[in-house]
Structure formats: C-alpha cells, structure tokens
Amino acid sequence: MRKIALLILTVLFCLHEGRASEKEPCASCHKQKTPGIVNAWESSAHAGAQVECLECHGDRYNADHSSAHERKIVTAHVCARCHAKEARNHFAGKHGIGFRAGRACTRNDMKTDKGCTDCHEKGSLIPRHEAECSSFLTQSPEMQRQGCLVCHMVENRCDACHSTHSTDLSIAQNPAICSTCHLGPDHPQYEMWESSKHGILFRQKGRSYSPDCAACHMPDGTHNVSEGITMGLAGQEYSPDVRERERDKMLKTCARCHSKSFAALNLKDGDAIQRQSKALVEEADSIIRELEKEGLLLPSPAARPAHPLYGNTLEIGAQMLYENLSRAEALLFRMKKFYYIISYKGVFHQNPDYAHWYGNAPLKLTLSEIRSEAELLKELKRLRDRVNNLSALGFSGADSESGTDKESLKTALRKLKERLLKGELSKDEYEKQRAEILKGYGF
C-alpha cells in the first residue's frame, strides 16, 4: 500500500512539474545552467504576477533545442508595455535623451545650423539615433562595449538602475547605484554628494533625514531625472522660460528642508560660478585657436590621424578628442571636460572642496599653464624666424659657436653694405636688415 501511495505521489509530482515546465519552459533548464537568474526571478514581483521569461524575452524558444534559440534583449520599450508612466518619464529626461550608444552628442555640435532635425528624426519627436560621438568612434570595439556602452545604453535599458531579473526596489533606490556612471574626473556627482553634508547625514540618519540622489533628481518617484535642472550638458543654456520653470521645481524640492531664500542664494551662486568658469575655458579656447593659426600646435591637425567626423581639422568643441593632441590641447581638454564641470557642479552638490580645490583651483592653474605654453611656443617661433633671417643674409650660426662672433658680424654687415651699394636694397630695407643682424648678436 505504501509503495502504491508513493507511486501515486511521484506521478502527481511529475505531472505538476510537467505543467510548470510547460507553463514556464525556461526555468527547468536555467535552474541548472544559470540558477542565480532563476532564483532572482522566482523571488520577484514578476514571478508573483506570473510575468514569465518569454513575455519579456520573446518567443524564439526551441523546446527540444534542435537549434539555438535567440534571447531577446529586454529594452525600455519592452518594459513600457506594463510600466507606461515610468517609461514616459524616463524618455523625457536626460537618461532617456541623447545617450543611446554614445552617439548623440553631435546634436551639441556648433558647426551645424540648429534646427529640429539636429535633435529629432525628420517629422518626428523621436530623438535622433544616427548622430555620432567622436570619442566613442575612436575607441576599440572592446572599449566601446566596456568603457562607453555600459553607461550610455541607459537611454534604452531599465536594468542600468534596476537589477535585471529581481524587482527589489531597494537596489534602484540605493544611491550607490548612481555611482556606476556618475563618478570619476568628468562628472563625480556621487563622490560630491557622498562627502557632502547631505551624504554624511544620509549615512547616519537615512532618507527621512537627508536627501540622496533620487530625492533631488527624481522627486516623488518620477523617472525623469531632469526635474529641476536648469542647464544642459556642459552648462548649455536653456531658454529663460524653461530655466525659470525648472529652477522653481528645484527650489520646491530644496524647500522641504531649507528656506527658499537660502536655497535660491546657493543655486544662484552655482549659476555665477558656472559662468565664471566658462569664461576661463573660453580664454583657453582662444589661445589654442591662435596657436593653431600661427602653426604652433605640434603635432598639427594636418599631421594627425583624421578626426572621425571632421577630418584633419582643429576640433576643440563638443567633439574634442583626448588623443594625438599637442600639450596645449591636452591641457585644454582637462579644463573643459574635468575642472570646469566640477567647479560648478561641486556648488550644486553642496561640496565646497570639489567646487574649489578639485574644480576652481586646477581650472585656473591649467589656464596658467596654457598661457605659459603659448608664450614659450611663440618665443621659440621668434628665435627660429631670427635664425632663418640671419641665414638668408649670409650669416652662419657655426661662426658664432666657433668663437669668431665679431668677424662673422663684420662679414654679415659688410655683405649687407655691398648689397646696398649695388642697388639691390633700398635704404629702408638696408636699415631694417642691419637692425635684425645686430639684434641677432645681442646689440
């Protein structure tokens, strides 16, 4: 009797497993091959709501594995089928605009005439996807995947912030998730916040006492991370009406803990420091352009590998590269891409050390280096021109090095005088060239 009962139980169990396998055919296999994924899904809200693998990954599953099945990448558009409001907010914000595949920063390129099609597909509100980013294009495929796309697929990947198979909101709500992308020399927002008074109080007291990233940038649970931000990438200005509207949103967020006047003063200071810092970058820009005009950038743009978008021309704008540059341009890159951004974002993230010592101070020090580099290059050019002029007048530098300076000076002056007497030079030309020779000898 016990054997019959066991047999019946075994059959029922197998039938149950067969139905479960038929209902969710992926789990039975992946429980063995990738148990971590299945465990995460089984404990998720998706599993509880019977949202199964094929509903997100597609239906190209071969039950008998007679041919390889294709795993459908789950994009934000797939998530939008159930999470429509969150998707709309996401696509409206900075995470959802202009970052796909690291390709959209061409829309900030000042070399093109601005119009709707610089940012959108023709006749559509859909953001352009074919725009290219020079820094992305110059990288190896491996670096594109690991150093660019891991962050710059956020436009179309919800799992950039949420986990892939779990629906545990504490993962996305942990501010450390933002540090995957928002740290380092180009935009260290996470480090700024973490070491600010806000970050320190958050660690001690929690979200109810002090704000984290989402409290300021995703207030009331919105997925639009641009809420309250009053300028674009690298400080590009918004129109006055948009700027005023977004500033008012941020002031309301700040007013949950601070007086509105206190918040307004701090944000106004950040605006002013952004403008001051930008003026320093613009001075450096003008110095670089002047050096290029005088042919003093080494290697010159013509002697470098071609820029992937513009060819062998000087590019120090939004599409500036950080390779195959002159020293002056390399210094400018650090100013433009690192110190300028840090100086004003340090203020907005309530971190005085980042605003001053990581931003303002190196910004000014680097500008001093560029000024000095420019003067040195110009002085070397003046010396080269002087030597060339003396050579054209019959003076050889070797004479000076052999200790016969006076004799060579006399020879050069005599030859010049002979040219005057022969009528080869006018009086004015003679006096000008004589002055050059004497100057070359230190007189």
Task: Characterise this structure.
- There is one protein chain.
- Helix 16 runs antiparallel to helix 17 (352-392) and helix 19 packs antiparallel against helix 20 (427-440).
- With 443 residues, this protein is mainly alpha-helical.
- The protein has helices at residues 2-23, 25-33, 35-42, 45-48, 53-57, 76-79, 84-92, 134-137, 141-152, 169-173, 189-194, 197-205, 213-217, 240-254, 260-293, 327-348, 352-392, 397-401, 405-421, 427-440.
- The termini are far apart.
- The radius of gyration is 33 Å and the shape is elongated.
- The longest helix has 41 residues, at 352-392.
- Mean pLDDT is 83; it is low at 1-22, 100-104, 106-114 and 398-403.
- Among the domains are: 2-57, no CATH class; 73-108 and 126-162, no CATH class; 393-440, no CATH class.
- It has 20 helices and no strands.
- Helix content is 56%, strand content 0%.
Q: What's the total count of β strands?
A: 0
Q: Helix content range of the residues, please? A: 55-70%
Count of DSSP helices? 20
The amount of beta strand, in percent, is under 5%
| Low-confidence runs of at least 5 consecutive residues | 1-22, 100-104, 106-114, 398-403
Helix-strand sequence: HHHHHHHHHHHHHHHHHHHH
Average pLDDT, to the nearest integer? 83
Q: Determine Rg (CA atoms, Å).
A: 33 Å
| Major sheet | none
Shape: elongated
Alpha-carbon distance between the termini? 123 Å
Supply the helix-strand structural class.
mainly alpha
Summed up, what is this model?
Helix content is 56%, strand content 0%. The protein is mainly α and 443 residues long.
